[in-house]
Protein backbone atom coordinates (compact mmCIF):
# COMPACT_ATOMS: atom_id res chain seq x y z
CA UNK A 1 0.00 0.00 0.00
CA UNK A 2 1.37 3.37 -1.05
CA UNK A 3 0.76 6.83 0.30
CA UNK A 4 0.47 8.92 -2.84
CA UNK A 5 2.95 11.71 -3.47
CA UNK A 6 2.08 12.46 -7.10
CA UNK A 7 0.23 11.00 -10.07
CA UNK A 8 0.65 12.38 -13.57
CA UNK A 9 -2.33 12.64 -15.90
CA UNK A 10 -1.99 10.69 -19.16
CA UNK A 11 -3.94 10.79 -22.40
CA UNK A 12 -4.84 7.17 -21.67
CA UNK A 13 -6.71 8.44 -18.60
CA UNK A 14 -8.79 10.51 -21.01
CA UNK A 15 -9.47 7.46 -23.16
CA UNK A 16 -10.61 5.55 -20.07
CA UNK A 17 -12.79 8.36 -18.71
CA UNK A 18 -14.26 9.20 -22.13
CA UNK A 19 -15.17 5.58 -22.86
CA UNK A 20 -12.73 5.04 -25.74
CA UNK A 21 -11.39 1.90 -24.01
CA UNK A 22 -13.85 -0.92 -23.41
CA UNK A 23 -14.57 -2.77 -20.16
CA UNK A 24 -12.86 -0.78 -17.42
CA UNK A 25 -13.33 -1.91 -13.83
CA UNK A 26 -16.28 0.05 -12.46
CA UNK A 27 -16.36 1.90 -10.18
CA UNK A 28 -12.78 2.92 -10.98
CA UNK A 29 -10.03 5.18 -9.66
CA UNK A 30 -8.01 6.28 -12.73
CA UNK A 31 -4.33 7.16 -12.86
CA UNK A 32 -1.24 5.11 -13.73
CA UNK A 33 1.80 7.39 -13.44
CA UNK A 34 2.15 6.92 -9.71
CA UNK A 35 4.85 7.98 -7.27
CA UNK A 36 4.33 7.06 -3.63
CA UNK A 37 5.81 5.87 -0.36
CA UNK A 38 5.26 2.27 0.76
CA UNK A 39 3.30 2.30 4.01
CA UNK A 40 2.38 -1.39 4.35
CA UNK A 41 3.22 -4.68 2.67
CA UNK A 42 1.41 -7.96 2.26
CA UNK A 43 2.46 -11.48 3.13
CA UNK A 44 5.74 -12.54 1.57
CA UNK A 45 6.96 -8.99 0.85
CA UNK A 46 10.07 -7.81 2.68
CA UNK A 47 9.27 -5.30 5.43
CA UNK A 48 12.39 -3.38 4.31
CA UNK A 49 10.28 -1.99 1.47
CA UNK A 50 8.24 0.06 3.96
CA UNK A 51 9.29 3.69 3.62
CA UNK A 52 10.65 3.17 0.10
CA UNK A 53 9.64 5.51 -2.70
CA UNK A 54 8.29 3.54 -5.66
CA UNK A 55 6.67 4.15 -9.00
CA UNK A 56 3.70 2.22 -10.38
CA UNK A 57 3.07 2.18 -14.15
CA UNK A 58 0.25 1.23 -16.53
CA UNK A 59 1.11 -2.49 -16.49
CA UNK A 60 0.04 -3.43 -12.99
CA UNK A 61 0.37 -7.21 -13.24
CA UNK A 62 1.11 -9.93 -15.79
CA UNK A 63 0.22 -13.60 -15.40
CA UNK A 64 3.75 -14.91 -15.94
CA UNK A 65 2.50 -18.14 -17.51
CA UNK A 66 0.99 -17.38 -20.93
CA UNK A 67 3.07 -17.83 -24.08
CA UNK A 68 3.84 -14.10 -24.26
CA UNK A 69 5.04 -13.86 -20.67
CA UNK A 70 7.19 -16.96 -21.11
CA UNK A 71 8.74 -15.36 -24.20
CA UNK A 72 9.66 -12.19 -22.29
CA UNK A 73 6.78 -10.20 -23.81
CA UNK A 74 4.75 -9.50 -20.68
CA UNK A 75 3.46 -6.32 -22.34
CA UNK A 76 1.34 -8.66 -24.51
CA UNK A 77 0.17 -10.85 -21.60
CA UNK A 78 -3.14 -12.65 -22.19
CA UNK A 79 -4.31 -11.99 -18.61
CA UNK A 80 -2.89 -8.61 -17.63
CA UNK A 81 -4.07 -6.03 -15.13
CA UNK A 82 -3.71 -2.35 -15.90
CA UNK A 83 -3.37 0.36 -13.28
CA UNK A 84 -6.19 2.88 -13.43
CA UNK A 85 -8.16 0.71 -15.87
CA UNK A 86 -8.73 -2.84 -14.62
CA UNK A 87 -7.45 -2.09 -11.11
CA UNK A 88 -7.67 1.13 -9.11
CA UNK A 89 -5.04 3.74 -9.78
CA UNK A 90 -3.46 6.88 -8.44
CA UNK A 91 -6.09 9.65 -8.51
CA UNK A 92 -6.31 9.06 -4.76
CA UNK A 93 -4.51 9.50 -1.46
CA UNK A 94 -3.50 5.80 -1.26
CA UNK A 95 -3.23 2.92 -3.72
CA UNK A 96 -2.61 -0.82 -3.49
CA UNK A 97 -0.13 -2.17 -6.05
CA UNK A 98 1.53 -5.45 -6.98
CA UNK A 99 4.99 -5.28 -5.38
CA UNK A 100 6.57 -6.93 -8.44
CA UNK A 101 5.36 -4.03 -10.58
CA UNK A 102 6.44 -1.20 -8.29
CA UNK A 103 9.83 0.23 -9.24
CA UNK A 104 12.26 1.72 -6.73
CA UNK A 105 12.74 5.45 -7.37
CA UNK A 106 15.24 8.07 -6.23
CA UNK A 107 14.32 9.06 -2.68
CA UNK A 108 15.90 12.49 -3.15
CA UNK A 109 14.16 13.44 -6.40
CA UNK A 110 11.05 15.60 -6.76
CA UNK A 111 8.04 13.22 -6.92
CA UNK A 112 6.18 15.63 -9.21
CA UNK A 113 9.07 15.57 -11.69
CA UNK A 114 9.26 11.77 -11.52
CA UNK A 115 5.57 11.05 -12.12
CA UNK A 116 5.45 11.63 -15.93
CA UNK A 117 8.32 9.19 -16.38
CA UNK A 118 6.04 6.31 -15.31
CA UNK A 119 4.09 6.31 -18.59
CA UNK A 120 4.98 9.22 -20.86
CA UNK A 121 8.61 8.32 -20.34
CA UNK A 122 8.29 4.53 -20.43
CA UNK A 123 5.98 4.36 -23.44
CA UNK A 124 8.06 7.02 -25.17
CA UNK A 125 11.18 4.95 -24.55
CA UNK A 126 9.60 1.77 -25.92
CA UNK A 127 8.39 3.74 -28.95
CA UNK A 128 11.87 5.15 -29.54
CA UNK A 129 13.38 1.66 -29.42
CA UNK A 130 10.83 0.51 -32.00
CA UNK A 131 11.76 3.48 -34.19
CA UNK A 132 15.32 2.18 -34.56
CA UNK A 133 18.66 3.94 -34.58
CA UNK A 134 17.97 6.57 -37.25
CA UNK A 135 19.47 10.03 -36.88
CA UNK A 136 16.35 12.02 -37.85
CA UNK A 137 13.27 11.36 -35.72
CA UNK A 138 9.84 12.95 -36.18
CA UNK A 139 7.54 13.34 -33.18
CA UNK A 140 3.84 13.88 -33.88
CA UNK A 141 1.95 15.38 -30.94
CA UNK A 142 4.34 17.33 -28.75
CA UNK A 143 2.96 16.59 -25.31
CA UNK A 144 4.14 14.71 -22.22
CA UNK A 145 5.78 11.76 -23.99
CA UNK A 146 7.35 13.74 -26.82
CA UNK A 147 8.89 16.35 -24.53
CA UNK A 148 10.70 13.58 -22.62
CA UNK A 149 11.81 11.60 -25.67
CA UNK A 150 12.99 14.76 -27.45
CA UNK A 151 15.48 15.29 -24.64
CA UNK A 152 16.73 11.71 -24.88
CA UNK A 153 17.06 11.97 -28.67
CA UNK A 154 19.16 15.12 -28.34
CA UNK A 155 21.35 13.44 -25.70
CA UNK A 156 21.85 10.55 -28.13
CA UNK A 157 22.90 12.97 -30.85
CA UNK A 158 19.79 12.64 -33.00
CA UNK A 159 17.85 15.40 -34.74
CA UNK A 160 14.26 15.94 -33.60
CA UNK A 161 11.53 17.19 -35.94
CA UNK A 162 8.37 18.17 -34.04
CA UNK A 163 4.84 18.19 -35.45
CA UNK A 164 1.82 19.73 -33.71
CA UNK A 165 -1.74 20.72 -34.52
CA UNK A 166 -2.21 23.56 -36.95
CA UNK A 167 -2.09 26.85 -35.09
CA UNK A 168 -0.45 25.40 -31.98
CA UNK A 169 2.42 27.86 -31.92
CA UNK A 170 3.07 27.27 -28.22
CA UNK A 171 3.81 23.57 -28.81
CA UNK A 172 6.28 24.43 -31.56
CA UNK A 173 8.07 26.96 -29.39
CA UNK A 174 8.19 24.38 -26.61
CA UNK A 175 9.71 21.80 -28.96
CA UNK A 176 12.34 24.21 -30.21
CA UNK A 177 13.23 25.16 -26.64
CA UNK A 178 13.99 21.49 -25.98
CA UNK A 179 16.37 21.22 -28.92
CA UNK A 180 14.17 20.28 -31.87
CA UNK A 181 15.87 21.40 -35.10
CA UNK A 182 12.50 22.03 -36.79
CA UNK A 183 8.91 22.39 -35.65
CA UNK A 184 5.83 22.69 -37.79
CA UNK A 185 2.23 21.72 -38.37
CA UNK A 186 1.28 18.05 -38.75
CA UNK A 187 0.30 18.69 -42.37
CA UNK A 188 3.69 20.21 -43.24
CA UNK A 189 6.75 18.46 -44.61
CA UNK A 190 10.07 18.90 -42.82
CA UNK A 191 13.10 20.14 -44.80
CA UNK A 192 14.58 16.59 -44.97
CA UNK A 193 13.26 13.05 -45.15
CA UNK A 194 13.07 11.36 -41.75
CA UNK A 195 14.49 8.00 -40.69
CA UNK A 196 11.50 7.33 -38.44
CA UNK A 197 8.47 9.01 -36.93
CA UNK A 198 6.64 8.38 -33.67
CA UNK A 199 2.96 9.31 -33.43
CA UNK A 200 1.84 10.15 -29.90
CA UNK A 201 -1.36 11.98 -30.93
CA UNK A 202 -4.41 9.66 -31.13
CA UNK A 203 -5.14 10.64 -34.73
CA UNK A 204 -5.19 7.90 -37.36
CA UNK A 205 -4.87 10.41 -40.21
CA UNK A 206 -1.33 11.09 -39.04
CA UNK A 207 -0.19 7.62 -40.19
CA UNK A 208 -0.27 8.42 -43.93
CA UNK A 209 1.01 11.94 -43.18
CA UNK A 210 4.03 10.47 -41.39
CA UNK A 211 4.66 7.88 -44.10
CA UNK A 212 4.93 10.69 -46.64
CA UNK A 213 7.92 12.19 -44.83
CA UNK A 214 9.75 8.98 -43.87
CA UNK A 215 12.50 7.73 -46.19
CA UNK A 216 12.56 4.33 -47.87
CA UNK A 217 13.16 1.65 -45.27
CA UNK A 218 11.93 3.97 -42.54
CA UNK A 219 9.38 3.27 -39.86
CA UNK A 220 6.30 4.92 -38.38
CA UNK A 221 5.58 3.98 -34.76
CA UNK A 222 2.12 4.43 -33.25
CA UNK A 223 2.77 5.04 -29.55
CA UNK A 224 -0.77 5.32 -28.15
CA UNK A 225 -3.16 2.72 -26.78
CA UNK A 226 -6.05 4.25 -28.74
CA UNK A 227 -6.18 5.98 -32.12
CA UNK A 228 -8.93 7.05 -34.47
CA UNK A 229 -9.27 4.97 -37.64
CA UNK A 230 -6.40 5.06 -40.08
CA UNK A 231 -7.82 6.28 -43.42
CA UNK A 232 -7.44 4.41 -46.69
CA UNK A 233 -4.15 5.28 -48.33
CA UNK A 234 -2.26 4.38 -51.50
CA UNK A 235 0.11 1.44 -51.35
CA UNK A 236 2.84 3.75 -52.64
CA UNK A 237 3.12 5.25 -49.15
CA UNK A 238 4.44 2.01 -47.65
CA UNK A 239 6.20 0.71 -50.74
CA UNK A 240 9.96 1.06 -50.46
CA UNK A 241 9.98 -1.15 -47.35
CA UNK A 242 8.50 1.48 -45.10
CA UNK A 243 6.68 -0.03 -42.12
CA UNK A 244 4.07 0.87 -39.54
CA UNK A 245 4.19 -0.68 -36.05
CA UNK A 246 2.31 -0.18 -32.82
CA UNK A 247 3.50 -0.11 -29.23
CA UNK A 248 1.46 -2.04 -26.67
CA UNK A 249 1.96 -1.34 -22.98
CA UNK A 250 5.44 -1.83 -21.46
CA UNK A 251 7.62 -4.38 -19.70
CA UNK A 252 9.55 -4.20 -16.47
CA UNK A 253 12.66 -4.49 -18.61
CA UNK A 254 11.74 -1.19 -20.27
CA UNK A 255 11.82 0.47 -16.84
CA UNK A 256 15.17 -1.10 -15.97
CA UNK A 257 16.59 0.41 -19.17
CA UNK A 258 14.80 3.73 -19.14
CA UNK A 259 15.30 5.17 -15.67
CA UNK A 260 19.14 5.06 -15.86
CA UNK A 261 19.00 6.59 -19.35
CA UNK A 262 16.72 9.39 -18.14
CA UNK A 263 19.17 10.17 -15.32
CA UNK A 264 22.20 10.12 -17.63
CA UNK A 265 20.44 12.29 -20.19
CA UNK A 266 19.45 14.80 -17.52
CA UNK A 267 15.79 14.64 -18.50
CA UNK A 268 13.76 17.43 -16.95
CA UNK A 269 10.01 17.01 -17.03
CA UNK A 270 7.89 20.12 -17.49
CA UNK A 271 4.82 19.89 -15.28
CA UNK A 272 1.69 21.74 -14.23
CA UNK A 273 0.59 20.77 -10.72
CA UNK A 274 -3.08 20.38 -9.75
CA UNK A 275 -4.49 19.44 -6.34
CA UNK A 276 -6.22 16.06 -6.36
CA UNK A 277 -9.57 17.82 -5.98
CA UNK A 278 -8.98 19.41 -9.41
CA UNK A 279 -8.51 16.13 -11.28
CA UNK A 280 -11.39 16.92 -13.64
CA UNK A 281 -9.88 20.31 -14.49
CA UNK A 282 -6.56 18.64 -15.28
CA UNK A 283 -8.32 16.16 -17.59
CA UNK A 284 -10.20 19.02 -19.29
CA UNK A 285 -6.98 20.98 -19.84
CA UNK A 286 -5.32 17.93 -21.36
CA UNK A 287 -8.34 17.25 -23.57
CA UNK A 288 -8.36 20.87 -24.81
CA UNK A 289 -4.61 20.99 -25.45
CA UNK A 290 -3.98 23.70 -22.88
CA UNK A 291 -0.89 22.01 -21.38
CA UNK A 292 2.80 22.11 -22.17
CA UNK A 293 4.45 19.00 -20.78
CA UNK A 294 2.48 16.99 -18.25
CA UNK A 295 -0.27 17.59 -15.67
CA UNK A 296 0.45 16.11 -12.24
CA UNK A 297 -1.99 15.61 -9.35
CA UNK A 298 -0.84 15.90 -5.74
CA UNK A 299 -2.94 14.94 -2.69
From TrEMBL:
<dbReference type="InterPro" id="IPR011032">
    <property type="entry name" value="GroES-like_sf"/>
</dbReference>
<comment type="similarity">
    <text>Belongs to the zinc-containing alcohol dehydrogenase family.</text>
</comment>
<dbReference type="GO" id="GO:0004022">
    <property type="term" value="F:alcohol dehydrogenase (NAD+) activity"/>
</dbReference>
<protein>
    <submittedName>
        <fullName>Alcohol dehydrogenase protein</fullName>
        <ecNumber>1.1.1.1</ecNumber>
    </submittedName>
</protein>
<keyword id="KW-0614">Plasmid</keyword>
<dbReference type="InterPro" id="IPR014187">
    <property type="entry name" value="ADH_Zn_typ-2"/>
</dbReference>
<feature type="domain" description="Alcohol dehydrogenase-like N-terminal">
    <location>
        <begin position="2"/>
        <end position="105"/>
    </location>
</feature>
<keyword id="KW-0862">Zinc</keyword>
<keyword id="KW-0479">Metal-binding</keyword>
<dbReference type="Pfam" id="PF08240">
    <property type="entry name" value="ADH_N"/>
</dbReference>
<dbReference type="GO" id="GO:0008270">
    <property type="term" value="F:zinc ion binding"/>
</dbReference>
<dbReference type="InterPro" id="IPR013154">
    <property type="entry name" value="ADH-like_N"/>
</dbReference>
<dbReference type="GO" id="GO:0005737">
    <property type="term" value="C:cytoplasm"/>
</dbReference>
<dbReference type="InterPro" id="IPR036291">
    <property type="entry name" value="NAD(P)-bd_dom_sf"/>
</dbReference>
<dbReference type="InterPro" id="IPR002328">
    <property type="entry name" value="ADH_Zn_CS"/>
</dbReference>
<keyword id="KW-0560">Oxidoreductase</keyword>
Amino acid sequence: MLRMEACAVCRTDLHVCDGDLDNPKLPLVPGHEIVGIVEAVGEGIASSRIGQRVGVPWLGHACGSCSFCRAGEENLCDRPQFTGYTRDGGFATHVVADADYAFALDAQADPVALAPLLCAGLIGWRSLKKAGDGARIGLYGFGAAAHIIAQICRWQGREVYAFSRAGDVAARRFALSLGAVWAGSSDESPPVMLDAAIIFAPVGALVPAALKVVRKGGRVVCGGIHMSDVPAMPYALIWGERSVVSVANLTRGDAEEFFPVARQAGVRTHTTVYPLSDANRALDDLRAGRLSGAAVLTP
